[in-house]
Amino acid sequence: MNTLLFPVILAGGKGERFWPLSRKDRPKQFLSLDGSSRSLLQATADRLIELGGGESSAARGFPTPVAHGGNPQDRAGSSAGDWRTRKGWDSLWVITSSQIAEGVRQQLPDLPVENLLIESEGRDTAAAVAWTSLKIKQRYGEDAVIGFFPADHWIADQEAFAHTLSAATELAASTAAIVTLGIKPTFPSTGYGYIEQGEKIGSFNELPAYHVNRFTEKPNRETAETFLSTGRFSWNSGMFVFRAGVVLKELHTHAPEIIEPLEQHGPDIYPQLPKKSIDYALMEKTTLAYVLPVDFGWDDLGDWNAIERLLKTEDTPNVELGTHVGLDTQGAIIYASNPEDVVVTIGLEDVVIVRDRNVTLVVKKERTQEIKQILKILQSDSRFTDLL
Protein backbone atom coordinates (compact mmCIF):
# COMPACT_ATOMS: atom_id res chain seq x y z
CA MET A 1 0.00 0.00 0.00
CA ASN A 2 1.41 3.38 -1.01
CA THR A 3 -0.70 5.79 1.01
CA LEU A 4 0.54 9.33 1.55
CA LEU A 5 1.06 10.36 5.16
CA PHE A 6 0.49 13.97 6.19
CA PRO A 7 2.91 14.50 9.10
CA VAL A 8 2.17 17.26 11.61
CA ILE A 9 4.81 18.64 13.98
CA LEU A 10 3.52 19.74 17.38
CA ALA A 11 5.79 22.71 18.03
CA GLY A 12 4.02 24.78 20.65
CA GLY A 13 5.78 23.68 23.83
CA LYS A 14 7.95 25.87 26.03
CA GLY A 15 10.55 23.35 27.19
CA GLU A 16 10.80 24.96 30.63
CA ARG A 17 12.93 22.17 32.07
CA PHE A 18 15.73 23.23 29.69
CA TRP A 19 15.87 26.70 31.22
CA PRO A 20 17.94 28.89 31.17
CA LEU A 21 18.84 27.82 27.63
CA SER A 22 15.17 27.57 26.73
CA ARG A 23 13.40 30.92 27.16
CA LYS A 24 10.35 32.72 25.79
CA ASP A 25 12.26 34.04 22.77
CA ARG A 26 14.08 30.73 22.26
CA PRO A 27 12.00 27.67 23.20
CA LYS A 28 13.44 24.18 23.35
CA GLN A 29 12.47 23.23 19.80
CA PHE A 30 14.74 25.96 18.44
CA LEU A 31 17.78 24.53 20.25
CA SER A 32 20.44 22.07 19.17
CA LEU A 33 20.89 19.71 22.10
CA ASP A 34 22.54 16.63 20.59
CA GLY A 35 25.85 18.15 19.52
CA SER A 36 24.69 18.61 15.91
CA SER A 37 24.07 21.84 14.02
CA ARG A 38 20.34 21.24 13.55
CA SER A 39 17.69 22.38 16.00
CA LEU A 40 15.19 19.86 17.36
CA LEU A 41 12.47 21.33 15.13
CA GLN A 42 14.67 21.21 12.04
CA ALA A 43 15.79 17.63 12.76
CA THR A 44 12.15 16.58 13.15
CA ALA A 45 11.21 18.22 9.84
CA ASP A 46 14.23 16.66 8.12
CA ARG A 47 13.20 13.10 8.93
CA LEU A 48 9.49 13.68 8.20
CA ILE A 49 9.88 15.28 4.77
CA GLU A 50 12.17 12.47 3.72
CA LEU A 51 9.24 10.09 4.25
CA GLY A 52 7.51 11.78 1.33
CA GLY A 53 10.57 11.68 -0.89
CA GLY A 54 11.54 15.24 -0.07
CA GLU A 55 14.99 16.55 0.68
CA SER A 56 15.88 18.56 3.75
CA SER A 57 17.70 21.88 3.67
CA ALA A 58 20.62 20.20 5.44
CA ALA A 59 20.83 17.49 2.79
CA ARG A 60 20.89 20.08 0.02
CA GLY A 61 23.70 21.95 1.68
CA PHE A 62 21.78 25.10 2.60
CA PRO A 63 23.08 27.12 5.56
CA THR A 64 22.01 25.93 8.98
CA PRO A 65 20.45 28.82 10.89
CA VAL A 66 20.99 27.58 14.43
CA ALA A 67 23.64 25.92 16.57
CA HIS A 68 23.81 25.27 20.30
CA GLY A 69 21.06 27.59 21.39
CA GLY A 70 21.53 30.35 18.85
CA ASN A 71 18.79 33.00 19.02
CA PRO A 72 16.29 32.51 16.19
CA GLN A 73 16.05 36.26 15.77
CA ASP A 74 19.73 36.34 14.82
CA ARG A 75 19.56 33.72 12.09
CA ALA A 76 19.71 34.49 8.42
CA GLY A 77 16.68 32.79 6.92
CA SER A 78 16.67 31.51 3.35
CA SER A 79 13.94 32.20 0.82
CA ALA A 80 11.56 29.33 0.22
CA GLY A 81 11.17 30.42 -3.41
CA ASP A 82 11.11 27.53 -5.83
CA TRP A 83 12.13 24.97 -3.18
CA ARG A 84 8.62 25.07 -1.80
CA THR A 85 7.19 22.65 -4.33
CA ARG A 86 9.76 19.97 -3.47
CA LYS A 87 8.11 16.65 -2.80
CA GLY A 88 7.65 16.14 0.93
CA TRP A 89 7.34 19.77 2.03
CA ASP A 90 3.82 20.21 0.69
CA SER A 91 2.57 17.35 2.88
CA LEU A 92 4.27 18.59 6.07
CA TRP A 93 2.30 20.67 8.59
CA VAL A 94 3.35 22.49 11.75
CA ILE A 95 1.15 23.80 14.56
CA THR A 96 2.67 26.28 16.99
CA SER A 97 1.92 29.27 19.20
CA SER A 98 1.65 32.89 18.11
CA GLN A 99 4.61 33.79 20.35
CA ILE A 100 7.09 31.72 18.35
CA ALA A 101 5.46 31.50 14.90
CA GLU A 102 7.98 33.86 13.33
CA GLY A 103 10.82 31.76 14.71
CA VAL A 104 9.25 28.67 13.16
CA ARG A 105 9.11 30.42 9.79
CA GLN A 106 12.81 31.24 10.07
CA GLN A 107 13.67 27.72 11.15
CA LEU A 108 11.66 26.10 8.32
CA PRO A 109 11.76 28.51 5.36
CA ASP A 110 10.67 25.72 2.98
CA LEU A 111 7.37 25.11 4.78
CA PRO A 112 4.35 26.34 2.76
CA VAL A 113 2.76 29.23 4.64
CA GLU A 114 -0.67 27.63 4.44
CA ASN A 115 0.68 24.56 6.27
CA LEU A 116 1.63 26.55 9.38
CA LEU A 117 -1.22 26.74 11.91
CA ILE A 118 -0.82 29.37 14.63
CA GLU A 119 -2.62 28.99 17.95
CA SER A 120 -3.64 32.28 19.56
CA GLU A 121 -3.33 30.59 22.95
CA GLY A 122 -1.92 27.20 23.89
CA ARG A 123 -4.67 24.74 24.88
CA ASP A 124 -2.56 21.54 25.02
CA THR A 125 -2.45 18.77 22.42
CA ALA A 126 -6.15 17.81 22.15
CA ALA A 127 -7.09 21.17 20.64
CA ALA A 128 -4.03 21.11 18.39
CA VAL A 129 -4.89 17.65 17.07
CA ALA A 130 -8.55 18.59 16.56
CA TRP A 131 -7.87 21.82 14.66
CA THR A 132 -5.16 20.38 12.43
CA SER A 133 -7.24 17.30 11.62
CA LEU A 134 -10.16 19.53 10.63
CA LYS A 135 -7.93 21.58 8.32
CA ILE A 136 -6.40 18.53 6.65
CA LYS A 137 -9.82 16.93 6.20
CA GLN A 138 -11.11 20.13 4.56
CA ARG A 139 -8.24 20.10 2.08
CA TYR A 140 -7.72 16.39 1.41
CA GLY A 141 -10.83 14.56 2.63
CA GLU A 142 -11.68 12.35 5.57
CA ASP A 143 -9.50 9.45 4.35
CA ALA A 144 -6.30 11.50 4.58
CA VAL A 145 -3.87 9.73 6.91
CA ILE A 146 -2.34 12.10 9.46
CA GLY A 147 0.59 11.59 11.81
CA PHE A 148 1.36 13.77 14.83
CA PHE A 149 4.93 14.15 16.06
CA PRO A 150 6.34 16.25 18.93
CA ALA A 151 9.12 18.61 17.88
CA ASP A 152 11.49 17.58 20.67
CA HIS A 153 12.16 13.89 20.06
CA TRP A 154 15.49 12.31 19.17
CA ILE A 155 15.46 9.39 16.71
CA ALA A 156 18.57 7.28 16.15
CA ASP A 157 17.65 5.11 13.16
CA GLN A 158 15.88 6.99 10.36
CA GLU A 159 15.47 3.87 8.21
CA ALA A 160 13.74 1.96 11.03
CA PHE A 161 11.64 5.04 11.81
CA ALA A 162 10.48 5.27 8.18
CA HIS A 163 9.72 1.54 8.13
CA THR A 164 7.60 1.93 11.28
CA LEU A 165 5.63 4.87 9.90
CA SER A 166 4.94 2.94 6.72
CA ALA A 167 3.42 0.19 8.88
CA ALA A 168 1.42 2.69 10.94
CA THR A 169 0.13 4.37 7.77
CA GLU A 170 -0.89 1.01 6.30
CA LEU A 171 -2.78 0.09 9.48
CA ALA A 172 -4.51 3.49 9.73
CA ALA A 173 -5.48 3.49 6.05
CA SER A 174 -7.01 0.02 6.16
CA THR A 175 -8.67 0.05 9.60
CA ALA A 176 -10.69 2.43 11.75
CA ALA A 177 -7.65 2.78 13.99
CA ILE A 178 -5.84 5.35 16.07
CA VAL A 179 -2.31 4.02 15.93
CA THR A 180 0.27 4.92 18.54
CA LEU A 181 3.96 4.07 18.42
CA GLY A 182 5.06 2.23 21.55
CA ILE A 183 8.78 2.40 22.30
CA LYS A 184 10.47 -0.74 23.58
CA PRO A 185 11.55 0.14 27.17
CA THR A 186 15.24 -0.01 28.00
CA PHE A 187 14.88 0.74 31.72
CA PRO A 188 12.02 1.11 34.26
CA SER A 189 11.40 4.79 33.62
CA THR A 190 9.13 6.70 36.00
CA GLY A 191 9.05 9.70 33.68
CA TYR A 192 7.20 8.15 30.73
CA GLY A 193 3.65 6.91 30.26
CA TYR A 194 3.16 3.24 29.38
CA ILE A 195 0.95 1.34 26.92
CA GLU A 196 -0.17 -2.22 27.59
CA GLN A 197 -0.65 -4.28 24.46
CA GLY A 198 -3.61 -6.62 24.20
CA GLU A 199 -4.69 -8.94 21.40
CA LYS A 200 -2.55 -9.06 18.28
CA ILE A 201 -4.55 -7.99 15.23
CA GLY A 202 -2.00 -8.78 12.52
CA SER A 203 1.22 -7.52 10.95
CA PHE A 204 1.75 -4.42 8.86
CA ASN A 205 4.93 -3.90 6.87
CA GLU A 206 6.23 -6.93 8.80
CA LEU A 207 5.59 -5.26 12.19
CA PRO A 208 3.08 -6.79 14.65
CA ALA A 209 0.19 -4.59 15.77
CA TYR A 210 -1.87 -4.96 18.94
CA HIS A 211 -5.06 -3.58 20.37
CA VAL A 212 -4.32 -1.29 23.33
CA ASN A 213 -5.48 -2.64 26.68
CA ARG A 214 -4.76 0.51 28.65
CA PHE A 215 -2.63 3.62 29.01
CA THR A 216 -0.89 4.25 32.32
CA GLU A 217 0.61 7.59 33.29
CA LYS A 218 4.03 7.88 34.91
CA PRO A 219 4.23 4.95 37.39
CA ASN A 220 6.45 4.56 40.44
CA ARG A 221 9.62 2.51 40.02
CA GLU A 222 8.19 -0.72 41.43
CA THR A 223 5.25 -0.58 39.02
CA ALA A 224 7.55 0.28 36.11
CA GLU A 225 9.73 -2.74 36.91
CA THR A 226 6.63 -4.94 36.97
CA PHE A 227 5.56 -3.57 33.58
CA LEU A 228 8.92 -4.41 32.02
CA SER A 229 8.91 -7.93 33.45
CA THR A 230 5.66 -8.78 31.62
CA GLY A 231 6.99 -7.87 28.18
CA ARG A 232 3.58 -6.41 27.30
CA PHE A 233 4.29 -2.72 27.94
CA SER A 234 5.78 0.00 25.77
CA TRP A 235 6.65 3.60 26.51
CA ASN A 236 4.06 6.02 25.15
CA SER A 237 5.97 8.02 22.54
CA GLY A 238 3.23 10.60 21.98
CA MET A 239 3.31 9.86 18.23
CA PHE A 240 -0.04 8.99 16.62
CA VAL A 241 -1.28 8.05 13.14
CA PHE A 242 -4.92 7.92 11.98
CA ARG A 243 -7.34 8.91 9.24
CA ALA A 244 -8.85 12.37 9.61
CA GLY A 245 -12.42 11.10 9.59
CA VAL A 246 -11.70 8.45 12.23
CA VAL A 247 -10.13 10.80 14.77
CA LEU A 248 -12.76 13.51 14.23
CA LYS A 249 -15.56 11.01 14.81
CA GLU A 250 -13.88 9.81 18.00
CA LEU A 251 -13.40 13.38 19.20
CA HIS A 252 -17.13 13.96 18.71
CA THR A 253 -17.78 10.93 20.92
CA HIS A 254 -15.21 11.56 23.66
CA ALA A 255 -14.31 15.27 23.48
CA PRO A 256 -17.28 17.17 21.99
CA GLU A 257 -16.38 20.19 24.14
CA ILE A 258 -13.29 20.62 21.95
CA ILE A 259 -14.25 19.55 18.46
CA GLU A 260 -17.76 21.08 18.27
CA PRO A 261 -16.72 24.68 19.12
CA LEU A 262 -13.89 24.42 16.59
CA GLU A 263 -16.27 23.23 13.88
CA GLN A 264 -18.77 25.98 14.66
CA HIS A 265 -16.46 28.94 15.27
CA GLY A 266 -13.04 28.03 13.93
CA PRO A 267 -9.78 28.95 15.69
CA ASP A 268 -11.26 32.19 17.08
CA ILE A 269 -12.76 30.03 19.84
CA TYR A 270 -9.33 28.78 20.94
CA PRO A 271 -9.02 30.76 24.20
CA GLN A 272 -12.34 29.29 25.38
CA LEU A 273 -11.43 25.66 24.72
CA PRO A 274 -10.60 23.38 27.67
CA LYS A 275 -6.92 22.66 28.14
CA LYS A 276 -6.52 18.90 27.73
CA SER A 277 -3.90 16.54 26.36
CA ILE A 278 -4.88 14.20 23.54
CA ASP A 279 -4.05 11.28 25.85
CA TYR A 280 -6.56 12.41 28.47
CA ALA A 281 -9.22 13.70 26.06
CA LEU A 282 -9.20 10.76 23.66
CA MET A 283 -6.56 8.03 23.87
CA GLU A 284 -7.52 6.82 27.34
CA LYS A 285 -11.19 6.59 26.28
CA THR A 286 -11.29 5.34 22.70
CA THR A 287 -11.72 1.66 21.83
CA LEU A 288 -9.91 2.22 18.52
CA ALA A 289 -6.39 2.55 19.96
CA TYR A 290 -3.74 0.23 18.53
CA VAL A 291 -0.03 0.06 19.26
CA LEU A 292 3.00 -0.84 17.19
CA PRO A 293 5.82 -1.80 19.59
CA VAL A 294 8.95 -0.42 17.92
CA ASP A 295 12.65 0.04 18.53
CA PHE A 296 14.39 2.68 16.43
CA GLY A 297 16.42 4.45 19.10
CA TRP A 298 14.30 7.13 20.75
CA ASP A 299 14.47 9.71 23.48
CA ASP A 300 11.95 12.26 24.68
CA LEU A 301 14.25 15.18 25.40
CA GLY A 302 12.40 16.24 28.52
CA ASP A 303 15.13 17.73 30.68
CA TRP A 304 18.88 18.17 30.97
CA ASN A 305 19.47 14.52 31.89
CA ALA A 306 18.53 13.57 28.32
CA ILE A 307 21.78 15.17 27.14
CA GLU A 308 23.73 12.61 29.13
CA ARG A 309 21.76 9.73 27.64
CA LEU A 310 22.58 10.97 24.15
CA LEU A 311 26.19 12.06 24.48
CA LYS A 312 27.84 10.28 27.43
CA THR A 313 30.72 7.95 26.51
CA GLU A 314 32.46 5.41 28.71
CA ASP A 315 35.86 7.10 28.45
CA THR A 316 34.74 10.57 29.62
CA PRO A 317 33.72 11.44 33.19
CA ASN A 318 31.33 14.24 32.15
CA VAL A 319 29.23 15.53 29.27
CA GLU A 320 30.69 18.86 28.22
CA LEU A 321 29.11 21.24 25.70
CA GLY A 322 31.29 24.22 26.49
CA THR A 323 34.72 24.91 27.95
CA HIS A 324 35.17 23.12 31.26
CA VAL A 325 38.16 22.84 33.56
CA GLY A 326 37.49 20.37 36.36
CA LEU A 327 39.20 18.73 39.29
CA ASP A 328 37.68 15.57 40.76
CA THR A 329 34.38 16.25 38.97
CA GLN A 330 32.42 13.38 37.48
CA GLY A 331 28.92 12.58 36.28
CA ALA A 332 28.35 16.25 35.46
CA ILE A 333 26.47 17.79 32.53
CA ILE A 334 28.05 21.12 31.61
CA TYR A 335 26.69 23.51 28.99
CA ALA A 336 27.94 27.01 28.12
CA SER A 337 26.35 28.82 25.19
CA ASN A 338 29.19 31.37 24.93
CA PRO A 339 32.44 29.67 23.81
CA GLU A 340 34.42 32.34 25.68
CA ASP A 341 32.87 31.38 29.02
CA VAL A 342 34.85 28.90 31.12
CA VAL A 343 33.18 26.72 33.74
CA VAL A 344 35.53 25.64 36.54
CA THR A 345 34.53 22.90 38.99
CA ILE A 346 36.15 21.18 41.94
CA GLY A 347 34.90 18.03 43.64
CA LEU A 348 31.42 17.93 42.12
CA GLU A 349 29.38 14.86 41.26
CA ASP A 350 26.09 14.28 39.42
CA VAL A 351 25.24 17.93 38.79
CA VAL A 352 23.99 19.98 35.85
CA ILE A 353 25.67 23.33 35.22
CA VAL A 354 24.27 25.61 32.51
CA ARG A 355 25.67 29.02 31.67
CA ASP A 356 23.62 31.09 29.23
CA ARG A 357 23.65 34.86 28.80
CA ASN A 358 23.13 36.36 32.26
CA VAL A 359 22.14 33.19 34.12
CA THR A 360 24.03 30.29 35.65
CA LEU A 361 22.06 27.23 36.77
CA VAL A 362 23.53 24.64 39.12
CA VAL A 363 21.28 21.71 40.05
CA LYS A 364 21.59 18.09 41.12
CA LYS A 365 20.68 15.81 38.24
CA GLU A 366 18.00 14.13 40.32
CA ARG A 367 16.19 17.45 40.83
CA THR A 368 16.06 18.87 37.30
CA GLN A 369 12.28 18.36 37.24
CA GLU A 370 12.06 21.18 39.81
CA ILE A 371 13.31 23.82 37.37
CA LYS A 372 9.65 24.64 36.69
CA GLN A 373 9.25 25.61 40.35
CA ILE A 374 12.17 28.03 40.08
CA LEU A 375 10.53 29.64 37.05
CA LYS A 376 7.38 30.26 39.06
CA ILE A 377 9.47 32.07 41.67
CA LEU A 378 11.17 34.17 38.99
CA GLN A 379 7.81 35.01 37.40
CA SER A 380 6.57 36.43 40.68
CA ASP A 381 9.43 38.93 40.94
CA SER A 382 9.63 41.81 38.45
CA ARG A 383 13.44 41.94 38.84
CA PHE A 384 13.74 38.66 36.94
CA THR A 385 11.38 39.22 34.01
CA ASP A 386 14.22 39.33 31.50
CA LEU A 387 15.47 35.92 32.66
CA LEU A 388 12.38 34.05 31.50
What labels would you give this structure?
26% strand; single chain; 17 strands; Spore Coat Polysaccharide Biosynthesis Protein SpsA, Chain A; four-stranded mixed beta sheet; 388 residues; alpha/beta
List the helices and strands and how they pair.
Layout: E1 5-10, H1 40-49, E2 93-97, H2 101-107, E3 116-119, H3 124-140, E4 145-150, E5 153-155, H4 158-174, E6 178-183, E7 194-204, E8 207-216, H5 221-230, E9 233-243, H6 244-254, H7 256-265, H8 278-283, E10 289-294, E11 298-300, H9 305-311, E12 319-321, E13 323-327, E14 333-336, E15 342-346, E16 351-356, E17 359-364, H10 371-379
Parallel strand pairs: 1-2, 1-4, 2-3, 6-10, 12-14, 13-15, 14-16
Antiparallel strand pairs: 4-9, 5-11, 6-9, 7-8, 7-9, 8-10, 16-17
Helix pairs in contact: 3-6, 3-7, 6-7
Describe the protein in words:
This protein is α/β, with parallel strands linked by helices and 388 residues long. The protein has two domains: 5-300, Spore Coat Polysaccharide Biosynthesis Protein SpsA, Chain A (Alpha-Beta Complex); 317-387, no CATH class. Helices cover 27% and strands 26% of the residues. The protein has ten helices and 17 strands. The protein has helices at residues 40-49, 101-107, 124-140, 158-174, 221-230, 244-254, 256-265, 278-283, 305-311, 371-379, and strands spanning 5-10, 93-97, 116-119, 145-150, 153-155, 178-183, 194-204, 207-216, 233-243, 289-294, 298-300, 319-321, 323-327, 333-336, 342-346, 351-356, 359-364. The strands form four sheets. Strands 6-9-7-8-10 form a five-stranded mixed β-barrel. Strands 12-14-16-17 form a four-stranded mixed sheet, covered by helices on one side. Helix 3 (124-140) packs across helix 6. The termini are far apart. Mean pLDDT is 88; it is low at 53-85.
